[in-house]
């Protein structure tokens, strides 16, 4: 029995050539950096070492990056981990398929970094920007969405005073390779100029986390009318206070492959889902695929419990 931890794998890699051959790819599958000095040590390693390791790295994890206890200012850290250094690292990993970063390094995620990450890393399938909420990060995403092309949103009104919204894509999707996208707790980014354009360019998305984002029914209506909804297996809308119960129900009814649905809310921020709409969701054919359902903060009634039991 081989424990899947780095210490055990590193020890196995030193046993002999055969062990090294099998343990090293597992060891370097996920490369995580917690402190600045480990990141710079890896970047400054000899070319032979980097060339061998770069073919093995599949996941670059910067989500746990921290400067706590280093007695260094944020300005000093920015001089250590720069956008140029990150771009060099991304280009060094041709087989990279997963990238994750948190708010501690959001200042490094510039327009140039986004271009390399989204457009040059052709094998990238999963991107996580959890907690990135600075104006600089939002501006970089805004500039990137202008580069790839935005969605034209038109609102019309009929003779009865009913309004309808239509979406028009002006160019071909450029991010078809992307399957998982997370903007968890990124409240500052705009749904008009950033979220909807990015979703329009990712038709093969299966995992979408918009928990804590400042989205409205507009985003849900776009998803419901796009092909993305038929492929989504994980949809997280926790703490999205500006979306309506009707829009949630309408979208979920289109998601035939949905396995995970998160509508969690807390005491301060609730994701409003009415009893009738929740029952409609639970009784729909799609609900039979559910493996995880989070309706925290919702009022649980006997009717809802009955609907859950039926599925």
From TrEMBL:
It comes from the Eukaryota. InterPro entries: Leu-rich_rpt_Cys-con_subtyp (IPR006553), LRR_dom_sf (IPR032675), LRR_FXL15/At3g58940/PEG3-like (IPR055411). SUPFAM superfamilies: RNI-like. SMART domains: LRR_CC (SM00367). GO terms for cellular component: SCF ubiquitin ligase complex. GO terms for biological process: SCF-dependent proteasomal ubiquitin-dependent protein catabolic process. Residues 174-268 form the F-box/LRR-repeat protein 15/At3g58940/PEG3-like LRR domain. Gene3D superfamilies: Ribonuclease Inhibitor. This is 21255_t:CDS:1. It comes from Dentiscutata erythropus. The lineage of its organism: Eukaryota, Fungi, Fungi incertae sedis, Mucoromycota, Glomeromycotina.
